[in-house]
Design a protein that fits this description.
It is a single chain. This protein has 318 residues and is an alpha/beta fold. The protein has 14 helices and 6 strands. The chain is elongated and about 85 Å long.
Length: 318
């Protein structure tokens, strides 16, 4: 009887022989993960490439395969239309306890495949890769792809990146790319930012100036819309608000005037009801609430809170 190590070596040998022989003879790829395989996966648009495996092995790691094989609807030949040959091969390799290299070139496809087939330990492997790979410098590049998966652990990672490095992230954004505006909104909604409010506004303006293209500032102001209320102008100094009110600006004249009234005289006007007057926490490292992912938004004053709003004491939070 072969040992576990000998069995893995034999499987690896079969893989190599299968790939070599099929490529030399037909130009296609054929991988057999063990002898006497009873299910064959084919791939649309991949010129007849095939992956062969044992059903009994696949069902050990995937409930989807378990259901698929139990129904018997697709028989012993299953055509894969939404996952490439290379990615599906990595998925099966993982199920067969072979080393899978998650890299920036393949992590999104492997993540999709592992979630589709409920291969949980491979999902965790990709999540760990994302947490180490996606940083402030490349969040804008990968945000649209990873955000659609809506995984709490990844969402928490993004929220904490935005709290700790908001300036670095804003500098990489492009106002013309809608998904990246979503990152800016996450930053603006955070109760904890490792920068001053004026520094944040200044970087946003510089980013927009560089990336808005032919759009006028009036058009940008319209696009910015209600996000303007997420910038906490009432917490700035008088001189900072005056600088923010100079052209080009995202503030209307009335907004700038009413904010100055609040800062200087504490006169609460109608405009102020839309802005938060509570300063953000800037000491991210030492904050007891540094994990901003645990917070939610108060529907009454829009401060991001948990259970009960410390701004206005509103507690009916859904």
């Amino acid at each position: 009887m072969m040992t576990h190590r000998q069995r893995l070596a034999e499987i690896s040998r079969i893989d190599q022989i299968s790939i070599q022989n099929s490529t030399e003879k037909t130009g296609t790829r054929r991988i057999e993960f063990e002898v006497n395989c009873d299910v064959t996966f084919t791939f649309s648009g991949d010129h007849g490439d095939e992956i062969l495996a044992k059903k009994s092995k696949l069902v050990q790691k995937s409930e989807v395969f378990q259901t698929q094989f139990a129904s018997g609807i697709e028989g012993n030949r299953i055509n894969i239309t939404d996952i490439s040959f290379e990615t599906f091969n990595e998925l099966i390799k993982h199920i067969y306890e072979k080393e899978v290299q998650v890299r920036k070139e393949n992590f999104l496809e492997i993540f999709y495949a592992s979630r589709k087939y409920f291969v949980n330990d491979l999902i965790l492997k990709v999540i760990k890769f994302i947490e180490s790979f996606v940083q402030a410098s490349n969040l804008g590049e990968y945000f649209a792809d990873i955000d659609k998966f809506d995984i709490k652990t990844i969402n928490d990672h993004i929220l904490n990146l935005c709290a700790r490095q908001p300036i670095d992230i804003v500098r990489t954004l492009n106002w013309s790319l809608k998904p990246q505006i979503g990152i800016l909104k996450i930053i603006l909604e955070s109760p904890i930012l490792n920068c001053s409010e004026y520094e944040l506004y200044r970087e946003i303006m510089q980013m927009i100036e560089k990336t808005k293209g032919d759009k006028t500032w009036k058009e940008v102001q319209k696009e910015f819309g209600k996000m303007i209320f997420l910038i906490r102008f009432p917490t700035m100094t008088v001189s900072d608000v005056i600088k923010c009110g100079k052209e080009p600006t995202l503030l209307s004249e009335k907004q700038a005037f009413d904010i100055l009234l609040w800062i200087q005289e504490k006169i609460f006007t109608e405009t102020l009801q839309f802005f938060s007057t509570r300063p953000r926490i800037q000491d991210v490292k030492n904050s007891t609430n540094a994990n901003v992912a645990t917070n939610r938004i108060c529907p009454n004053c829009r401060g991001r809170v948990y259970q009960k709003c410390s701004n206005c004491s509103f507690s009916n939070i859904n």
